[in-house]
Design a protein that fits this description.
heterodimer; A: 337 residues; three-stranded antiparallel beta sheet; B: 387 residues; alpha+beta; four-stranded mixed beta sheet; four-stranded antiparallel beta sheet; 11 helices; binds flavin-adenine dinucleotide
Chain lengths: 337, 387
């Protein structure tokens, strides 16, 4: 029992954070917001250079062969950076599912090299993200999975200016082994991680702002009302983090109650992120209500992640059914049940 | 990250489980907040100590087992799983004990730690004064040096268990005219010493869980001072850190409350409103999150890390979780929540627990104070009036 990140995991996080903060700052988000596609081939190429699309692809297919915990850690960093490129769904959700399905070596190699981009479709989502630009779609059908292709149709605008949505499509393709629940759980876990990263970013922006904005002759961060808002948000964020990592372990090891842990993580992270967004805008005052400050990118990502891959009602009902319904043992000696 | 228990840890769990099954008193004890209940709880402390379970993380030399924090968490899980009573001596074992281990002399360690671990001496914490609650540096009680003794005068208040406990620890002003956190010393005193008067204070639930202490020229040997004269503030800050931090509020007790709440919700079936059901799920989520977080911190400490101002995050989390869980139970019970007793002799534990949970956000440093600490020390926000 050792609930710490390993040296390697910390080094990976530090490296990715440093890279993204150098190449994917707020000015990049603003520039992309002005582009019709909202995407940049240069950023996509730099992610490939970092090896991120191949993070979970087995080494035999040119990937790094890392696990769900590492993917969650990177997804947090993607959320912190407000990453625009569609990295997570293909690399951290489709790749491990395709690896488990078997027989998809060529596609996995193409994911690692950045040639293939896989979008995800599931009934939990009324929209499909990043279908434009995708080479493949991994789609849930009748509890199973289907890999194939489809053209993006009927674009739908997201509140998040950097997110690209389409209405669901008919996928022409072939079944692959695996369950659609597994797809949902992995995707929900990654949405939770991105929300937590966005919350981290909003906290940092708000602390910065509170330390510089002056009113009544003092930085507003000296006032207790402002301090307490930020302290409460910190509590929620810091107690969501271990829940997320615990869920990552459950998914990685295919634990019996993995879906309950994913729902817990989704709720903890998204509730913290939504609350952080409300706190952040309060701390920023009217500036927070404008495009003049960068805050809105992360706020909107948090809202998007909160609704995607099972909304609050969905995940609450899963917890309710398992905890009150009795499927998962509860109590002091059941911490890691 | 490896969330599996080792075979040794599993064997340890089995050992604790077996001992608890054979030793935990059948049926609830009378509340610790009354003299008869206090005596029952002290008897339980001694029984625990007879099995060497008084303080498992302490060195064996002081009556402990020298176990690490993960083993401590396992112990706590089995303790609360077995429905074992509250610890009468938590001020001693969780607060003063670690303080003496860090700041005490060898002589003090030998004198105080073993009797503490054995449940022979029960301790009360005497920091608060009528005019020094949140503002602990406003302490006015004095200790004047007279040869190899200090002479204590003043008043302490809200000292948990001081009505019945054996010894107390607290801060006293040892430097005449000193201000704020300067000139304070950390002293240990026998509550039965001549010159000490205890006045039990009736709490919200009607029992006398804490007491006021009056010091009228109480003589305390200089050898009872922890750390240097005038160094008391730093020592007390360390003790407060222990109080908010890992040890005092182990996650297992909240997991036990969450499990009871789940049972209550199941038993009440369709009477439970959707909102209350959501709050029951939230109780499980909160207790689990607190447990994961504690395991994470414990893993870090075992690897040589330290817990600092993060302890304030814990303090807020457990106290607000506990209050929310009990509030939810009150809502689910509806009209029955009002009853002091459900049936002959059966106390409404949810009502008692709700009343007690209201004090969590106040004691051990109020949550407002904790939020100030988080904002200033963790987030680096400026102090008001500093610029
Ligand atoms: C059940 C229980 C057990 C206790 N046991 C012990 C014990 O064993 N030993 C002991 O020494 N003490 C004990 N206490 C006392 C406890 O430590 C104090 O009550 C606590 O420190 C708060 O002090 P106070 O009650 O004087 O409240 P006050 O300091 O008067 O505070 C009243 C309110 O004002 C707020 N406030 C005060 N200052 C600030 C500030 N700077 N910023 C924002 N808000 C502020 C507080 O948060 C609180 O909401 C116990 C209390 C309770 C309820």
């Amino acid at each position: 029992m050792d609930f710490r990140l390993t040296e390697d995991q910390r080094a990976l996080v530090d490296g990715v954070r440093e890279f993204l903060s150098g190449t994917h700052g707020a000015e990049v988000l603003r520039a992309l917001d002005g582009e019709p596609t909202r995407r940049s081939s240069a950023i996509a190429a730099s992610l490939v250079e970092m090896g991120l699309p191949g993070l979970m692809v087995p080494a035999d297919q040119g990937g790094l062969g890392l696990g769900t915990v590492e993917a969650v850690l990177i997804a947090i960093e993607a959320g912190r950076a407000g990453l625009s490129e569609p990295l997570i769904d293909g690399a951290f959700v489709a790749a491990p599912l395709l690896t488990n399905a078997g027989g998809q070596d060529a596609l996995l190699a193409a994911i690692a090299s950045g040639e293939a981009r896989v979008a995800l479709q599931h009934p939990a989502n009324p929209w499909v993200a990043d279908l434009d630009g995708a080479t493949h779609v991994l789609s849930a059908r009748a509890g199973g999975l289907l890999i194939g292709t489809a053209a993006a149709q009927h674009p739908a605008d997201s509140v998040d200016p950097l997110r690209r949505l389409s209405k669901p499509v008919t996928v022409a393709g072939t079944p692959v082994a695996g369950s659609s629940d597994d797809l949902l759980n992995r995707a929900a876990l990654m949405a939770a991680a991105q929300a937590l990263g966005a919350a981290d970013a909003m906290l940092a922006l708000s602390v910065d702002y509170a330390g510089t904005r002056q009113q009544f002759g003092e930085p507003i961060g000296a006032f207790q009302a402002v301090k307490h808002h930020l302290a409460s948000a910190t509590v929620a964020i810091e107690f969501a983090r271990p829940v997320l990592l615990r869920a990552a372990c459950a998914v990685e090891h295919g634990e019996a109650h993995a879906s309950v842990h994913v729902s817990h993580a989704k709720l903890a992270a998204c509730d913290a992120a939504v609350a952080m967004a409300e706190t952040a805008i309060q701390v920023h005052g009217a500036m927070g209500y404008t495009y003049e400050v960068d805050l809105h990118f992360w706020m909107k990502r948090a809202w998007a992640m909160a609704g995607a891959w099972g909304d609050r009602a969905f995940h609450l009902s899963r917890i309710d059914a398992a905890v009150i319904g009795g499927a998962i043992p509860v109590g002091p000696a059941e911490t890691f049940a | 990250m490896d969330l599996a228990y080792t075979p040794e840890q599993q064997a340890f769990r089995a050992e604790v489980r077996e001992w608890m099954a054979a030793n935990v008193p059948v049926g609830a004890l009378v509340t610790l907040e009354r003299e008869d209940g206090y005596r029952q709880h002290v008897a339980w402390e001694r029984r625990l100590a007879s099995g060497n379970w008084g303080m498992v993380t302490w060195p064996e030399a002081y009556g402990g087992r020298g176990l690490d924090l993960i083993q401590w968490l396992i112990f706590e899980e089995e303790y609360w799983r077995a429905g074992a009573p509250n610890r009468a001596n938590q001020n001693g074992i969780f607060l003063l004990g670690p303080t003496i281990m860090e700041f005490g002399t060898d002589e003090q360690k030998a004198r105080f730690l073993t009797p503490m671990a054995k449940g022979e001496v029960i301790w009360a914490q005497a920091w608060s004064e009528p005019g020094a609650g949140s503002d602990m540096a406003a302490i006015a009680s004095r200790a004047v040096r007279d040869g190899d003794h200090y002479v204590l005068t003043g008043q302490k208040t809200w000292s948990s268990r001081a009505a019945y406990a054996d010894w107390g620890f607290g801060l006293f002003r040892t430097e005449e005219g000193s201000k704020r956190h300067k000139g304070l010393s950390f002293l240990l005193f026998d509550l039965n010493a001549p010159g000490i008067t205890r006045r039990p204070i009736r709490q919200l639930h009607g029992d006398t869980g804490f007491a006021e202490l009056f010091f009228d020229e109480v003589r305390v040997p200089v050898a009872n001072r922890i750390s240097g004269e005038g160094e008391g503030w730093n020592v007390a800050m360390a003790t407060a850190g222990f109080e908010r931090g890992l040890m005092l509020r182990s996650p297992a007790r909240f997991q036990a409350t969450a499990a009871r709440l789940v049972e209550l919700c199941r038993a009440q079936g369709s009477r439970v409103s959707p909102g209350a059901r959501e709050a029951v799920s939230a109780a499980w989520k909160g207790a689990q999150a607190y447990a994961y977080n504690t395991y994470m911190v414990a893993s870090r400490i075992i690897a040589g890390g330290h817990i600092g101002a993060e302890a304030s995050l814990n303090k807020i989390f457990w106290s607000e979780l506990d209050r929310a869980m009990h509030r939810t139970a009150m809502q689910i019970l509806g009209a029955a929540a009002e009853l002091r007793h459900f049936a002959d002799g059966e106390v409404n534990a949810w009502l008692e627990g709700y009343i007690f949970s209201l004090s969590g956000p106040i004691y051990a440093g109020s949550n407002e104070i904790q939020r100030n600490i988080i904002a200033e020390r963790l987030l680096g926000l400026p102090r008001q009036g500093a610029g």
